[in-house]
Amino acid sequence: MKLRIYRVITGGLLLLCMVMIFRFSAQPASESEQVSGGVAYRIVETWSHLTGTEYTQSEMEAYADRIDYPVRKLAHMTEYGILCLLACAFVHGYSGNWKVCGISAVAVAALYAATDEIHQLSVPGRAGRFPDVCIDTLGAVIWLLLFTALRKLWEKIAKRRGFQYNKNRKNERGDNCGRT
């Protein structure tokens, strides 16, 4: 029963993430640029406050324009990183093998990035570009690698403290999950 609830929750979160990405991609270019430009401006504004640097309005706008592209691409990498981790969690509810989960999750993220770029072809002012698929997939891979490193660190710490994870745990079907 717990496994079924886990699958429903992770599957629901995965679908919610996909819907969120779809809705962001459905924004016309002018609306999307306004949102990312506002975020870039707030970053410059925050940097100004943290460092005590006084910028004029035009300097702040110029710096915001300069960092707008990297901010947008980092946002895409973050979206697809989260999508990848949610896909990994969902697949783990069925497979239990982290390698299978990771490969499947990156594949899901890459395929969704490709379909997202195709979708953007129909949005005013937007374009579907292969480099964007690569950037989104790179974000998924980076987040998966970070997750894997943290998971392995957690397992190492748990082992040192005497916590044993039961690798022979059975799922609700009675199958060996092979969780490691």
From TrEMBL:
Pfam families tied to this protein: VanZ (PF04892)
Residue ranges constituting the VanZ-like domain according to the UniProt record: 13-150
Lineage: superkingdom: Bacteria
Listed name of the protein: VanZ-like domain-containing protein
Organism: Roseburia hominis (strain DSM 16839 / JCM 17582 / NCIMB 14029 / A2-183)
Classification lineage: Bacteria, Bacillati, Bacillota, Clostridia, Lachnospirales
